[in-house]
Design goal:
This protein has one domain. It has two helices and six strands, in the order αβαβββββ. The chain has helices at about 5-20, 40-50; strands spanning about 25-30, 55-60, 65-70, 80-85, 105-110, 115-120. The N and C termini lie far apart (about 35 Å).
Length: about 120
């Protein structure tokens, strides 16, 4: 297995994004296929991404739904992470691959100060 997640690159990208954006959504392609719960390394990466500036983290790859969790960073910032949204539309036949969720979230605020006001799923 080749791990293409480069934490130095992620940190650099998030730093640059913070200079340009009021709210940062990080999309991570990680996790093990068909595993319904995140592995410890996914949690570690998600926390790293939250600590470095992401405001919302959305994961994909396992082809099954994994939990949504609320992380708290060292500076008390709250960051939701959806480890895997499952499959939106797929012909896979393995158990639990026939479902997926769509996140519905509301971001509001003024220039320089946007925040997540609500999060739900369909």
């Amino acid at each position: 297995m080749v791990n293409l997640i480069d934490t130095n690159k992620i940190k650099e990208d998030l730093k640059r994004a913070k200079e340009l954006a009021d709210f940062i959504i990080a999309a991570l392609h990680f996790g093990e296929e068909y595993q319904r719960f995140p592995k410890e390394y996914q949690k570690t990466i998600a926390y790293f991404v939250a600590e470095n500036g992401a405001d919302l983290i959305i994961g994909s790859h396992p082809h099954v739904i994994q939990p949504v969790e609320l992380l708290t960073t060292k500076d008390k910032k709250k960051v939701y992470v959806a480890y895997s949204l499952g499959n939106f539309f797929c012909g896979q036949r393995k158990r639990f691959t026939d479902t997926g969720i769509i996140l519905k979230y509301q971001i509001s605020g003024k220039r320089g100060k946007a925040e997540l006001k609500a999060i739900n799923y369909l």
